[in-house]
Amino acid sequence: MSEGSILPLFEHYDDHVDKTFNLPMITIATLFNRAVQNHPEKIFIKYYEYQFTYEEIGKLARTLAKNLISNWLKKGECIAIFLPKIPQFIIVYYGVLLAGGIVVAMNPNYTRDELEN
């Protein structure tokens, strides 16, 4: 899909709604890397009394990405993440994306039946 494309879902919108969708054609990993480069000292995550900068999270995510690639992850493979809303989720999320993987975020509170379906 190119910039300015009309998405199929817009067919169902009222006529007065602008149906163009201008989204840069770059990956989330690229956006993350830009944020780390442009704002290294800014706070990225606040978690209770802890604070993490873009640079800190970027270093941890890149380290994880290198380990995933060197150990087994192939580009395009899906990785399920079973973590609650904690800073480690963000690190793993971006680490997988930086390694070329596809993130499947899973709620750790899912039941067996929910996971099987």
Task: Kindly summarize this structure in a few lines.
This protein is α+β, with helices and mostly antiparallel strands. The chain has helices at 28-38, 54-71, 87-98, 112-116; strands at 43-47, 50-53, 78-82, 102-106. 15% of the residues are buried.
List keywords for this structure.
117 residues; alpha+beta; Rossmann fold; two-stranded antiparallel ribbon; two-stranded parallel ribbon; 4 helices; 4 strands; 16% strand
Task: Give an overview of the whole structure.
With 117 residues, the protein is an alpha+beta fold. The protein has one domain: Rossmann fold. The chain is 39% helix and 16% strand. The protein has helices at residues 28-38, 54-71, 87-98, 112-116; strands at residues 43-47, 50-53, 78-82, 102-106. The strands form 2 sheets. It has a two-stranded antiparallel ribbon. Helix 1 (28-38) packs across helix 2 and helix 2 (54-71) packs across helix 3. The longest helix has 18 residues, at 54-71. The chain starts with 27 loop residues before the first helix and ends with a helix.
